[in-house]
Amino acid sequence: MLSRSIFLKQAVKPILSKRLQSNAAFALCNQELMSKPLKEIDPELNNFLNLEKKRQRESLTLIASENFTSSVVFSLLGSEFQNKYSENRPNKRYYGGNEFIDQVELLCEARALKAFNLNPEEWGVNVQPLAGSTANLIAFSSVLEVGERLMGLDLPSGGHLTHGYQLPNGKKISGVSKYFTTMPYQLDPKTGLIDYETLSKTSQLFRPKVLVAGASAYARLIDYKKMREIANKVSKDCYLVTDMAHISGLVAAGTLPSPFEYSDIVTTTTHKSLRGPRGAMIFYRKGIRYTTKKGEAVKYDLEDRVNFSTFPQHQGGPFNHTIAALAAALQQTMTPAYKKYQEDVVANAAYLAEQLKQRGFELVSGGTDNHLVLIDLNNFEIDGARVEALLEKINISTNKNTVPTDKSALYPMGLRIGTPAMTTRNFGKEEFAKVAEYLEKGVLLSKKFKKIQDESPVKVKGHTAKLNEFKKLVSESDEVKQLAEEVKQFVTQFPMPGDL
């Protein structure tokens, strides 16, 4: 008779064998799922990826807030850094296994300070914010309590939603306007420039605790010294917060004036002119803020405030793959090639502005000092939404934008364009002269189709319905299709990052 142990071994052996076979089969399937290329695992999504690659390659990218990032940044965004969780600050994590993640984040911080020529004794930086809007909310919340006051450039004047935008009737559009009491300042309607004189007067009446310098559609230089003086007139406790999201690459290269000398806090995105991954940074002052009449030094306490506002108040774990990619992008800002690129961005924008003016375009403020041009379409009697829609059909990416005369951000009469992306693809003045030609053709075609739409006996109601009808007319036009092919043939002559 078999012993109990031998019997059990013989009985269990086939079960274990089947289980091992099953585990091996599962392991193989799991490895295939984790290792096969996208085109095999998800052909539907792979198709969309290929279509987007094709669209980018064959289009004129003129959206001022877009750029093409480098192959190095791409590789880090898809790296093993993506797998790691790391709440809190370096060397203070709530998770283990962050030895190298900590070193990468500290490296990124050091490079951020170096890129903008900042003394670590006077400035610190948090590189964890996931986006520019988040960074602004984090920064404002670090120095403001709910209901306290903030002033920022009005959206129709070129400001950003996160600078406290609300409708004239008081409806809160931005989360910032919901949590804090906000008041906008505007441009001088005659010059298209920030009206510093009126801002100085209204700020002393409103008495904000935060004054925001920065914009998303302002083509001129901001006078940071004057903004500092205005803040100081309000109160010694009024913080000047600068949002340099659009121009940070230009500032890093020394092409545009730096806001750091006069600001208490500086925020920026990292993917626009900076040409890094999609993320954000918050820089904050350290050291002595001011001296009282009694000679007592009042120090900044922004480091703990900003870091605590970032985590745990507004975010959980940072995106470590983004921070690594940002570190690489910041290293690139310190090269001669990068500085030359930023000089070309500004030169190309100025040249494009002049070319557009020669073709009858009106520009807010009459020109540009930075990377963008804001077109006022009122003299063409065509709105920005229709022009944007038609330009997209001829392979030109732009965005409709408010201009100072607009009453609504939904139906603006402006078009914002910029030069960073196409300068990355080696466009120079000759190419931007061609861009101006295509923009003129696009606007005139938009007028043509709007006239057809207006004269049609069949009338549709509502802005969305009218815009959809306009798009349908445009998509059926052979003239539009021919122009789209011409633009495609023109732009595909120029390399995309990674082609070399």
Helix content: 40-55%
**CATH T-level fold name of the largest domain:** Aspartate Aminotransferase, domain 2
What is the tally of helical segments?
A: 18
Q: Per the principal axes of the C-alpha atoms, what is the gross shape?
A: globular
Q: How many separate domains?
A: 2
Overall strand count:
15
Radius of gyration from CA coordinates: 27 Å
CATH secondary-structure class of the largest domain: Alpha Beta
Largest sheet: 7 strands, mixed
CATH architecture label name of the largest domain: 3-Layer(aba) Sandwich
Instruction: State the end-to-end distance.
Output: 77 Å
Main location: mitochondrion
GO molecular function, one term: methyltransferase activity
Cofactor: pyridoxal 5'-phosphate
Keywords: Methyltransferase, Mitochondrion, One-carbon metabolism, Pyridoxal phosphate, Transferase, Transit peptide
Describe the fold and architecture:
This protein has 500 residues and is of the alpha/beta class. It folds into 2 domains: 77-332, Aspartate Aminotransferase, domain 2; 336-491, Alpha-Beta Complex (Aspartate Aminotransferase, domain 1), CATH 3.90.1150. The protein contains 18 helices and 15 strands. The chain has helices at residues 4-35, 38-41, 43-58, 71-77, 99-115, 132-143, 175-179, 196-206, 224-234, 248-252, 302-314, 320-332, 336-358, 384-393, 420-424, 429-455, 463-475, 478-491; strands at 60-61, 123-126, 149-153, 181-185, 210-214, 239-243, 265-269, 280-285, 288-291, 297-299, 362-363, 372-376, 396-397, 399-401, 414-418. The chain has a 7-stranded mixed beta sheet with strand order 2-8-7-6-5-3-4, sandwiched between helices. Helix 6 (132-143) crosses helix 11, helix 13 crosses helix 16 (429-455) and helix 14 (384-393) runs parallel beside helix 17 (463-475). The longest helix is centred in the first third of the chain and has 32 residues, at 4-35. The protein is globular, with a radius of gyration of 27 Å. The N and C termini lie far apart (77 Å). The model has no long low-confidence stretch (mean pLDDT 95). This is Serine hydroxymethyltransferase. Keywords: Methyltransferase, Mitochondrion, One-carbon metabolism, Pyridoxal phosphate, Transferase, Transit peptide. The modification N6-(pyridoxal phosphate)lysine is found at residue 272. One of its GO terms (biological process) is methylation.
